[in-house]
Amino acid sequence: MERLTINHNNWWEIKETNSQDCKDICVEPISCIGCPVQKSFDRLATYVDTGLEPEEIILLKQNFERKVCTGCWLKDGAKISENIGELKMLLEQAAEEIENCYGRETALSERIREQLK
């Protein structure tokens, strides 16, 4: 995201104004169209409209990145294969248990084995 402000020793300035007053940089005095100050206020209003404090936005972003972007086993082909292998093994065990309970092969155990092929 493009940063619209600059911090000079805890004194914030709108980047495109170069410390000038609004009247000195104004392009459209009546409508503020194209005004860097207005762009900054618009951006600020967008953040305020979320209803979240800056710290909450940072936490939300960190949680999103942690859940979606990092450590996800779906991004790791070897981990996917390992998980699929475990699932197949569990399904085979389930089919065997069903057959042990009934003392024979059942429609359900057959369907499980068909899905494993």
Question: Mind explaining what this structure looks like?
Answer:
This protein is mainly α and 117 residues long. It has five helices and two strands. It has two domains: 5-69, no CATH class; 73-116. Helices cover 60% and strands 7% of the residues. It has a two-stranded antiparallel ribbon with strand order 1-2. The protein is rod-shaped and about 90 Å long. 3% of the residues are buried.
Spatially, the strands of the biggest sheet line up as 1-2
What is the percentage of strand-forming residues? 5-15%
Unreliable parts: none
Query: What's the total helix number?
Result: 5
Kindly summarize this structure in a few lines:
The protein is mostly helical and 117 residues long. It is 60% helix and 7% strand.
Structural descriptors:
mainly alpha; 2 strands; 60% helix; 7% strand
Write the layout of secondary structure elements.
Blueprint: E1 5-8, E2 11-14, H1 22-25, H2 36-49, H3 54-69, H4 77-102, H5 107-116
Antiparallel strand pairs: 1-2
Helix pairs in contact: 4-5
